[in-house]
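TASK: fixed-backbone design
INPUT:
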């Protein structure tokens, strides 16, 4: 069963969310996932401030209602899958070494930057400097 994330509110400034990766999420309980920290601008906040989380850790993540202000999703992934329903910001799949990312929406700049292996499919537009 996948771990599912629902964006609760649109951030005023970018969210740096490199914890949204199967490598980080897989071994954690729901309570541990909700307490992971992300950056909202310069401020560290718990993931649960912006996302409702369903399920415990899994190799399969699903993100709903995302925003182009959500950055670094899938950073350094080595396994599993990440499915995004909505837009996603810069650095999607940066430093990726394995796994699969599928975006049903648009993705911003630097998709797959420094990527070594894995698969990224964006069903929408991609920004500049892809790969």
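OUTPUT:
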């Amino acid at each position: 069963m996948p771990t599912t994330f629902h964006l609760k509110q649109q951030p005023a400034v970018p969210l740096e969310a490199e914890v949204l990766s199967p490598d980080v999420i897989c071994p954690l309980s729901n309570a541990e996932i909700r307490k992971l920290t992300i950056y909202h601008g310069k401020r560290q906040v718990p993931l649960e401030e912006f996302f409702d989380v369903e399920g415990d850790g899994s190799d399969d993540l699903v993100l709903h209602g995302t925003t182009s202000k959500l950055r670094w999703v899938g950073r350094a992934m080595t396994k599993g899958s990440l499915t995004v329903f909505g837009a996603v910001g810069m650095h999607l799949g940066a430093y990726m070494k394995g796994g699969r990312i599928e975006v049903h929406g648009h993705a911003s700049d630097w998709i797959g930057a420094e990527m070594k292996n894995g698969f990224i499919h964006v069903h929408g537009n991609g920004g500049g400097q892809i790969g």
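COMMENT: The helical segments are 22-25, 30-35.
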